[in-house]
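Write out structure tokens for Gp5/Type VI secretion system Vgr protein OB-fold domain-containing protein.
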Amino acid sequence: MSLEQMISVLTDKIEHHYYGKYRGLVVDNRDPEGLGRLKIRVPSVLGPDTVTGWATACVPFGGDANRGVFFVPEVGAGVWVEFEEGHLEFPIWVGTYWSKPRGESEVPKPVGADGVEEGQVQDPPTAKIIKTAKGHTLQFEDRDGDERITLVEARHNHVLTMDVDGIALSHGTGGHSIALTDSEVSVTTASGATVTLTESGVTVDAGPGTVEVKGSAVRLGSASAPVIRIGDQGIGNLGAPVAMSVTTNTQVFA
């Protein structure tokens, strides 16, 4: 092949093939084959009205049965488009991009330890965030002194937080919570009743009444009656143990 022929072939290949990345907008994400493919409008290549065929997904992990990363963009999302070996009939979507419509960044905003979304995008970007269209969020915060993992169920605002203090789970609509620290596990209801478990025992505090279990002793009390202790032992006149002691004026009902 002469130099002129080689140049002609290369020129023809370049003119009729499309290499590199092009901006596109998702038109359809309901792939009938269930492969995560998209139909995309790519104005700079196909014009403003023409839509691609099903564009194959290019993802960071997968390629085998029932494993991989499955994040399919929503209709209207901005995606980067390539064409396999430059051929328009083989489109590929290879990622997404954010814009600033009306001057506001589309980057997902971080959430605080309470699961509430903050007002601004992070600066500097110390957290890694996965956030869905409904607001469900998984966030990994690497900021020094504030390292934590937060999981938020957005519809009911259920929040799971793991940080230096321990693990906290809150029920967004019911107001109940569970907390695990180095020294105790506690369950708190919306009304303020608590169950606390420590190395020394278990305490149930229901407001007007409490139950405390420590070792072999059980302590019962309320706001309107004296305390009952079961399991305290002393030595009687003849040396026998006294298995139960009750404070003055206590009433015990069988």
